[in-house]
Amino acid sequence: MEPIPLRALTVLLNYEFMVSDPRFHGVRFLLSSVADATTLPTIKGRIPDLFKNLPATIRKQSLNQFVTFEEPLPADIASTTILIHPDAAPSVQALTFAQRELIYHETHSSDGCLKAIALFQFFFDLCSPGQKLSIQLTNEFISERNANSQGPQEPTIVDIHARDVLKFISKGPKLHSIVALPPTKVLINGSRENEPHAVLQFYSPRDLHHFIVDMTRMQYGEAGRRNLFLGNRP
Q1: Range(s) of the domain holding residue 171
Q2: How far is CA 162 from CA 49, 58, 120, 124, in A?
Q3: Which CA distances in Å does 195 have to 172, 175, 224?
Q4: DSSP string, the chain
Q5: 163 to 120, 133, 152, 166: CA distances (angstroms)
């Protein structure tokens, strides 16, 4: 039985996590503070309670709104970037691909860490007894000074049961983000000094190190734009 590459599995499950999220079915993107700088002051004036008592560490704020769209995509088509509503302002229509991609991941990852972990759990429940994972660390996890001398490391083989869920508190958020969904759902990140988060960790059979996977770290915006597979951590 061949080991399953954890990196490839993470990419596939992350895709499934993003496109199957029921919160974003039948909606299109209408409004964004990224496209229009007046959006945040307007909302602050209308709903000031959303912006009260924010942590002093906040450096950036964002607001993105989705509204119902009566012509959903066919069932066999899944989008991995935001779909803009035809009535959206020209500034929203003009968002670059990079901006739309970042908004997509920031909004879809919001409040989703335990759901993402559950996808792994469901997948492992379908695996045969004794199934292993192959974890390959590449030069991205090796210091620049030693990269040329060490090269890619040999894969680490771990048992799928040698894992657990690591829950912790993320302190001092830098991004305060608000996602508005129909009819009245609001997803908020960064409104508290201490916010809960969770990741999946696998244990190495060779030493005390472990390997972390976090599929929802881009809910923290640009700061989360790193590989979803975090690699070896002491």
Answers
A1: 4-233
A2: 44, 37, 13, 11
A3: 9, 12, 16
A4: -PPEEHHHHHHHHHHHHHHT-GGGTTEEEEEETTT-TTHHHHHHHH-GGGGTT--TT--EEEEEEEEE-SSPPPTT---SSPPBPTTS-HHHHT--HHHHHHHHHHHHTTT-HHHHHHHHHHHHHHSPTT-EEEE---GGGS-HHHHHHH-SPPPEEEETTSEEEEEEEEES-SEEEEEEETTTEEEEES-SSEEEEEEEEEE-SSSS-EEEE-TTGGGGGGGG-S-SEEEEE-
A5: 11, 11, 24, 9
In order along its 234 residues, the chain shows pLDDT tens digits of 899 999 899 989 989 999 889 999 889 999 999 999 999 999 999 999 999 999 999 999 999 999 999 776 665 556 778 889 999 999 999 999 999 999 998 999 988 999 999 999 999 999 998 899 998 866 444 444 444 545 556 788 999 998 999 999 988 888 999 999 999 999 999 899 998 999 999 988 877 778 888 888 888 877 666 544 444 444
The answer to pTM > 0.90 is no
Return the axis-axis angle of helices 97-108 and 6-19, rounded to nearest 10°: 90
- Specify the pLDDT at position 25: 86
Distances (CA, A) of 166 to 80, 90, 169, 202, 214: 28, 43, 10, 10, 10
Query: If you search the block for the tokens 């009819």, which residue do you land on?
Result: 183
Domain count across the chain: 1
The answer to whether the CB of 102 falls within 8 A of the CB of 12 is: no
